[in-house]
Design a protein that fits this description.
Blueprint (H helix, E strand, L loop, with lengths): L9 E5 L3 H7 L4 H22 L3 E8 L7 H24 L2 E6 L7 H14 L5 E9 L1 H18 L4 H5 L3 H5 L12 E4 L18 E4 L9 H12 L10
Parallel strand pairs: 1-2, 1-5, 2-4, 3-4, 5-6
Helix pairs in contact: 1-2, 2-3, 3-4
This protein binds farnesyl diphosphate.
Length: 240
């Protein structure tokens, strides 16, 4: 039975430690990424089971393009294969699949399977699974600022109204428009930094750092994170 209190609406995970997991076993780094996909599946199932409505995963940053070409290719091939394989699972479990990031940098083949998965799952309501791909927080804020400036230039008659916008108004220019800010951000593998992730959206997220490497982060670890979150006292800068 689900006896959890205060289940977060949106859980976001910085998946880290695939390379170390592989190295500890004398394997290629790609083996860590392959095993990491099993953790993606396990955490997605757990999110559905515990009633989390949004699960987002930092799968590939803008900076990750600087990794050796062989690893980048292996990761992109793995994303492609996983998306092809999981579509029926998304449909069976009511999962809406969304990819956010600098999509122009992804290949046509990958973009086409992403479009297909997003279109076919768009009415699903149980869980929204967001994959951040070729994403960085600074890039997101910059593209939002450019959109905003473009709107002012296109509508000079509305410039005063547009410039009176508050921070909630700016949300709609970010790629996460329509997705609530994460309540809980988990980073695995013992590293404690944001790595250019959801810099704007994380303003009041609870942060949780786990020593477990991503390929070992499964249902039990996800549940433990939800239990720790349920004990947090969120005040949003105010006094209770
Ligand atoms: C970080 O570990 C992990 C990544 C950069 C890739 C994560 C991607 C997956 C698990 C595949 C996801 C697939 C889908 C369909 C979402 P690292 O390589 O930085 O590990 P290290 O810090 O130990 O070197």
């Amino acid at each position: 039975m689900n006896a959890l209190k205060n289940v977060p609406v949106h859980v976001s995970i910085i998946m880290d430690g695939n390379g170390r997991w592989a190295r500890e076993r004398g394997l290629e780094r790609a083996a860590g990424h392959i095993e990491g996909v099993e953790s993606v599946r396990a955490c997605t199932e757990a999110a559905v089971e515990y009633g989390v409505k949004y699960l987002s995963l930092y799968a590939f940053s803008e900076e990750n393009w600087g990794r050796p070409q062989e690893e980048v290719n292996a990761l992109m091939a793995l994303m492609f294969k996983s998306m092809m394989a999981e579509l029926s699972n998304f449909m069976d479990n009511g999962i809406r699949f969304v990819v956010l990031g600098h999509r122009e940098r992804l290949g046509d083949e990958l973009n086409s399977v992403i479009n297909d998965c997003m279109e076919k799952t768009k009415e699903n309501k149980t869980l929204t699974l967001v994959i951040f791909l070729s994403y960085s927080g600074k890039w997101d804020i910059l593209q939002a600022a450019k959109k905003f400036a473009g709107e002012i230039l296109a509508h000079p008659d509305r410039s005063a109204e547009l410039l009176s916008m508050d921070t909630d108004g700016f949300d709609r220019y970010l790629v996460t428009d329509g997705i609530p800010d994460p309540d809980l951000i988990i980073r695995t593998s013992g590293e404690m930094r944001m790595s250019n992730y959801l810099l704007w959206q994380a303003a009041y997220s609870e942060l949780l750092f786990s020593d477990v490497l991503w390929p070992d982060f499964r249902k039990q670890e996800f549940l433990s994170a939800l239990q720790l979150y349920s004990k947090r006292d969120r005040r949003y800068g105010k006094v209770k």
